[in-house]
Design goal:
Strand content: 5-15%
CATH architecture of one domain: Roll
Order of helices and strands: EHHEHEEHH
Largest sheet: 4 strands, mixed
Number of helices: 5
Helix content: 40-55%
Distance between the termini: 108 Å
Low-confidence stretches: none
Shape: elongated
CATH superfamily of one domain: Ribosomal protein L31
Radius of gyration: 36 Å
CATH topology of one domain: Ribosomal Protein L31e, Chain: W
CATH class of one domain: Alpha Beta
Structural class: alpha+beta
C-alpha cells in the first residue's frame, strides 16, 4: 500500500467579473446583494468547486466594501478580483485597491498595531515578581480586616436607620393613614 501524498496546490488567478447583466434584472433594493451573489456564482463555476457550494467562497471585507460603496442600488458594473484557491476554500480579494480603501486599510492596520503593542506592555506589567509566603499572609490578613471594617460600618448604619425610623413613628402627627381606595369625587353630592 502506497502512502497518499497530500497536495497543497495553491491556485492564484485574476478575473474581471461582469456584474451588470445579473444585477439588472433584480429590484433596485437588492442590487448589491445580487452583485455579491454573482461574484460567488461566477467563482464557483470558474474555480471548479465541488457541488457548487457558495459557502466555500470567502469574500474579502474590502471587496465587499467596494461593491457596497455606492449603496445598495448602484453596485459597480464589473470588478477585477484576485482569487486564491487552497484545497476547497476560495478566497477572493481586490486586485487593485481604490485610493480611499488603501488609506482606510493603512489606518486600520496602524490602529491594530498600536493596540497589540499596548496589550504586550500590559502583559509585561501584569507579571509581578513572586512574593514570599509571609507577604501573601499579610496581604490576606489586610483583606480580611478591611472586610470586617466594612461589615461593621454597614451594621452601624442599619442601627442608626432603625433609631431614626422609631423616632419618626412616635412623633405626634407622624404618618397619616391613606384610604385604601380613592373617593369618587365626580358622583359625590
Amino acid at each position: 500500500m502506497a502512502d497518499k501524498e497530500t497536495k497543497t496546490d495553491k491556485i492564484e488567478r485574476e478575473y474581471i467579473i461582469p456584474l451588470r447583466e445579473k444585477c439588472r434584472v433584480v429590484p433596485r433594493y437588492k442590487k448589491a446583494n445580487k452583485a455579491i451573489k454573482t461574484i460567488k456564482e461566477f467563482l464557483v463555476k470558474h474555480m471548479k468547486i465541488r457541488d457548487r457550494d457558495l459557502k466555500k467562497i470567502k469574500i474579502d471585507k474590502y471587496l465587499n466594501e467596494v461593491v457596497w460603496f455606492r449603496g445598495i442600488k448602484k453596485p459597480p458594473a464589473k470588478i477585477k478580483v484576485k482569487v486564491i484557491k487552497e484545497e476547497d476554500i476560495v478566497k477572493v480579494e481586490l486586485s487593485e485597491m481604490p485610493s480611499k480603501l488603501k488609506f482606510k486599510k493603512a489606518r486600520l492596520e496602524k490602529r491594530d498595531k498600536k493596540a497589540e503593542e499596548k496589550i504586550e506592555k500590559k502583559k509585561d506589567i501584569a507579571k509581578p515578581e513572586e512574593k514570599s509566603e509571609v507577604e501573601k499572609k499579610e496581604i490576606e490578613e489586610k483583606k480580611t480586616e478591611e472586610k470586617e471594617k466594612k461589615s461593621a460600618v454597614v451594621e452601624e448604619g442599619k442601627k442608626i436607620e432603625k433609631e431614626a425610623a422609631k423616632q419618626v413613628k412616635h412623633k405626634v402627627g407622624g404618618k397619616t393613614k391613606q384610604p385604601k381606595h380613592q373617593i369618587r369625587k365626580a358622583l359625590a353630592k
